[in-house]
């Protein structure tokens, strides 16, 4: 009797490097709520109060790097399908359950902006449509982005009829002060802040990032089935077009998006619609730029890839370190540092996590969170 064995998928180090790079952008995007929890709780719109640092982050980082991460989630799923073979359905179901539990725990304990629960839910949809053809997956992703952008345009049109309805509300200073006091209080105060804030932020993440994340899952699925990142000559042919669209179209649109968030009204809604359409272009340009750098300087890939291999551990690790620095779990520095100093903290945190990832993976095959998640996913099957 012949036994069919699922082919083992090789490790794609370029994907690990891109994932490690994306972790840096995600850290920059997320650090604002740790460094200044009162601003977001009081109704602020920028990631780190205001000023040049916030404007740069809003333009170049915000909404750009979770797009990359979502694309890689879809791409990595195709690698898992090749490795798991006929066991893909039960294993993916367990993996999504593990991600959901991990996300809820993180959301209530350390990071209210957790996205793992969203990824777990969308992962079930990805599993259901896993046999979709690459071209169909791309079309479906484009439809999702198009419809989502059209909704923002429709809201912008309605706001034009009633200009006062889209005004940026003033910062609720009382709510901001209370949130900061809780976040920098004792551990029980931090837990109270988490419990009060996480459900609202989670709904915001699901509502505003869910459609784009699903579209990028589908784009990643299509790219993975086509082995786009595994065959450098294929993406290299697309590189000039991607760079032109990303920096020539996506970057100006990102500048408009930042301006619109400060303006409010129909301009802000128009900025949201335009950002939905163009942020994948700028994100793709980032990825292609990195891949081109990696081809010429392999040391860059060697520095980034370990963090990408242990991406879940690094994602959780970012939250843990940020809590120890900014919350009452540790130094309670929230609200104390200028934005440029916060970026210095980000640089030190990112460098530390890169070094820890390289050190850990010289001694272990996986990051600690990856190991636990894989054991739960395989449920006793012998890992290859």
Quick description:
The chain has 384 residues and is mostly helical.
Could you name the key traits of this structure?
transmembrane; disordered N terminus; 384 residues; mainly alpha
Describe, in plain words, how this protein is organized in 3D:
By secondary structure, this protein is mainly α. The model is unreliable at 1-9 (pLDDT under 50). It is built from 15 helices and no strands. The protein has one domain. Helix 4 (65-84) crosses helix 9. 77% of the residues lie in helices and 0% in strands. The longest helix is centred in the middle third of the chain and has 39 residues, at 187-225.
Helix/strand layout:
Layout (H helix, E strand, L loop, with lengths): L12 H23 L1 H5 L10 H9 L4 H20 L3 H22 L6 H13 L5 H28 L11 H11 L3 H39 L6 H32 L1 H32 L1 H12 L1 H16 L12 H23 L6 H11 L6
Helix pairs in contact: 1-4, 1-11, 1-12, 1-13, 1-14, 3-10, 4-9, 5-6, 5-15, 6-9, 7-9, 7-11, 8-9, 10-11, 11-12, 12-14, 13-14
Keywords: Membrane, Transmembrane, Transmembrane helix
Protein name: DUF418 domain-containing protein
Organism: Thermocatellispora tengchongensis
